[in-house]
Amino acid sequence: MPMIVTVHSWGGGVGKTTAVANLGYLLARLGLRVGLVDAGLQAPGLHLACGVPDGQLRRGITGYLVGECGLDDILYDLGPLAGLGGGRGALHLAPGVVDMGAIARPALAGQYDTGLLHEGIRQMAVALDLDAVLVDTHSGVNHEAVHALAIADVCLTAARPDTRGLSGGPLMATISRRLSVPFALVLFTMVPPGMTNTALTGIALRRYESPMAGALPWAAELARGDHTGLFAAAFPEHPFTVALHDVANLLAGLRT
Amino acid sequence: MAELSAVLVLRDRTSLETSQEDGHDLDEALRAARMRVVHALPDEVVKHLTGPDPPDLLLLPSSLGADRVGRYGMLLRRGNGDLLVPPAPEGDPSGRHQGRHTAVMVYLDGELADLEACVKHGYHYLVPPYRGSLIRTQLMCDVERHRLARVAEEAALAVSLRQYERELRIAQEIQEGFLPSDLPCAPGWEIDVRFRPARAVAGDFYDAFPLLQGRRLSIVVADVCDKGVGAALFMALIRTLLRHTAEHAGQWNLFDGLPPLEALARDVRQESPALVPGAAPLLQAMTGTNRYMTSNHQGYFATVFFGVLDPESGCLLYANGGHNPPLLRRVGGRLERLQVTGPAVGLHPDSEFRLAEVRLDPGDVLLAYTDGVTDSRDPEGEFYGEDRLSALVRGLAGTSLGLLDRVEADVQAHLRDGEQYDDITMLALRRLAGR
Predict the structure, then answer these.
(1) How far apart are CA B288 and CA A215, in angstroms?
(2) Which residues form the PPM-type phosphatase domain (chain B) (predicted)?
(3) How many CB pairs under 8 A join A and B?
(4) What's the CATH class of domain A3-255?
(5) Which chain A residues are within 8 Å of B264, Cβ to Cβ?
(6) What CA–CA distance (Å, rounded) separates B86 from B65?
(7) Each residue of A15-30: pLDDT tens digit?
(8) Hey, are the CB atoms on A179 and B280 less than 8 Å from each other?
(9) Same domain membership, residue B184 and residue B153
């Protein structure tokens, strides 16, 4: 079975979705067959971080959850878009949706079984022969997130090293512990210049009771939003990409 | 007309010996009316009324007073208003005892005020001069009135009975409406049921319905405590609560009834059954129904076996709330029992229902049943029992329908002519070989 990596955050706007898309890309570049799952049903956006514009995808996970379509109908091969060619590495996306009606139905009414998310990930992994699945969750404590954490082999908690980001630390640590997540790690994002990895490692251990997976520096190119698509593919030498590459290597190592 | 008889009750022995007394005149008048007259003292009345040949007429002296007269009247109307008359001897061809009635009349004996008091209590009365023909006419009127009253009473009873039967039939029809008219089918699976209420309506029920847009199949077998109409009412309620909750469960209540989070935690790399599809509807149905019952209808509960089948994988997720463990017959004949995972639904407000999972492989068959099967007793009172059921099921390798037929036939053979005391419900689920 594939390694399931659930990427979560306490607060919103920490760059979690960007991290998921690019981490998936970098893992694929390492030769892994990777699936990306957008479980942020309330505000899906993983497809955008992968360079797939709104309107191009008609069906997403919500359609699968409420039984409107099958898993085969929603899977999207990002290989050509990401420029992955030749080798074993592959990148597939189970997108959220961009249709307001489809978002509203399950998200607001809650009329679906969260267990299907789990089953869908398993089926996707088998169908695409995946080595790793990265699940992008909606921030905060919600059912999809808790469910995705419960099935995770690795919980990657994304957080900015500021007051807001650190405030959720103890709670996330408790949730991971109580769910017996095998590997709970912290991924610091939007790290301002001047903060050392040593200091951040200490914060991760104190606040999150977990080791640090990496520290992604602040990237003006990302903040400006003038770039579309996979950032790591466009800026392979950027410190952000370099730091994320280390995280990819770490995860690939955990898998073995 | 048959000879009429009268018991003439006298104040005391001397009253008859005195020719001037009213009793004497009355005695003569009765005989003139061709009636057989027997004299009695007040303390002999009961003996005459309960003897083998009760009189057509009981004549009481007004001097007994309204209270004592009333006591004799009460004696005659004891119970349901029928007269205190012994049952007709067997083989009585005369029909004389059929609708036998003893009329009571009070005759003037002493003070007029005493007679008035009796009349106020509704007793017919006789005053001198006594005329045989008038007494006879009055007696016949009383008999006829009694006959009409009896006819009216019987008619009212018949109407009431028919109304009850009609209500019961409606209840039966409504209850049948609470059972699925069609069983859902899934490719590669057989599902069959058997439902035999002990009375017109039952406390048992079964259900089968699709969940998660047909990706799962729910099966329920339950037994509501009690029998008859009361149980049937709660059967309707519990069945509805279970099904409605399961069909409308969302993820928002996934952790309801579970110790939060820990229930989802993996156990030595084994994922919690609470994470699989169908877990949320199943748990919400059990805990929600349990909470509703304990909050609103204390004292009523049901044993419930609730399973959610994944027809693709054969995995059956289930909760067993105090129900007889269903038998899972493996293809080779080995039996497994799906043990209880929680108490009966409706017993305790804080009941926890664990989830368990079992996989049905091709050729395996599951038999869920109510205790009406195993508690069936033969005329000597011996239970059918789990051992006999297990032995039978172990040896049955055919279709689910065949399994139910054989079990039912065996239970009937055990019952012989004995009464079926409890509802019998069975549900068989079989995965076809080669699937």
Answers:
(1) 45
(2) 186-431
(3) 69
(4) alpha beta
(5) 146-147, 150, 179
(6) 27
(7) 999 999 999 999 999 9
(8) no
(9) no
What's the gap in Å between the CA of B186 and the closest CA on chain A?
17
Q: Half-sphere exposure (CA, 13 Å, Cβ side) for B403?
A: 31
What is the number of structural domains in chain B?
2
Give the three-state DSSP class for B295: helix
Here the CATH number for the domain that contains residue B204 is 3.60.40.10
Q: B-chain residues within 8 Å CB-CB of A115?
A: 275-280
Question: Domain for residue B168, yes or no?
Answer: no
pLDDT at B416 over 80: yes
Query: Amino acid identity of A62?
Result: T
Whether B200 and B145 share a structural domain:
no
- Are the Cβ atoms of B250 and A112 closer than 8 angstroms? yes
Check whether residue B89 and residue B222 sit in a common domain.
no
Determine, for residues A178 and B265 on separate chains, whether the beta-carbon distance falls below 8 Å: yes
SS3 at position B115: helix
pLDDT in tens, B371-410: 999 999 998 889 999 999 999 999 988 899 999 999 999 9
Q: How confident is the model at residue A76 (pLDDT cuts 50, 70, 90)?
A: very high
In a domain, B244, yes or no: yes
Residues of A with Cβ-Cβ distance to B279 under 8 angstroms: 113, 115
E strands, chain A, where? 3-9, 33-39, 76-77, 90-94, 132-137, 154-159, 183-191, 212-217
pLDDT in tens, B198-249: 877 788 999 999 998 889 999 999 999 887 788 888 999 999 999 999 988 7
Gap from A137 CA to chain B (nearest CA, Å):
15
| Of residues B214, B266, B278, nearest to A113 (C-beta) | B278
Q: Is A115 on the interface with B (CB under 8 A)?
A: yes
Instruction: For residue B189, give the nearest of B417, B425, B12, B364 by alpha carbon.
Output: B364
**Rounded-to-integer distance, Cα B422 and Cα B420, Å:** 6
Give the end of a domain, one of B124, B158, B192. B158
Distance CA A129, CA A74 (A): 16
Say which CATH number the domain at B49 has: 3.40.50.2300
Taking the CA of residue B255 and the nearest CA in chain A, the distance in Å comes to 9
Assess if residue B254 is contained within a domain. yes
Asked if residue B251 lies in contact with residue B276, where contact means CB atoms within 8 angstroms, the answer is: no
Of B257, B339, B328, nearest to B290 (Cα)? B257
Residues of A in contact with B278 (CB under 8 A): 113, 115
Residue B88 binned pLDDT confidence (cut-offs 50, 70, 90): very low
Q: Looking at the structure, tell me whether residues B146 and B294 fall in a common domain.
A: no
Distances (CA, A) of B136 to B24, B56, B143: 17, 11, 10
- Enclosing domain of residue B77: 4-158
How far is C-alpha A145 from the chain's CA centre? 11
The complex scores an ipTM of: 0.71
Tens digits of residue pLDDT in A147-195: 888 889 999 999 999 888 788 878 887 888 788 888 999 999 999 999 9
Residue A158: strand pairing partners: A9, A187
The mean predicted confidence, pLDDT, of chain B is 84
A188 neighbors A160 (Cβ within 8 angstroms): yes
- Whether B170 is in a domain gets the answer no
pLDDT confidence bin for B80, thresholds 50/70/90: very low
Contact with chain B for residue A109, Cβ under 8 A = yes
| Contact A116/B at CB under 8 A | yes
DSSP letter (8 states) at residue B120: H
- pLDDT given for residue B276 in this prediction: 82
- Residues on chain A touching B275 (C-beta within 8 angstroms): 115, 118, 147, 150-151
Q: What is the mean pLDDT of the segment spanning A121-142?
A: 93
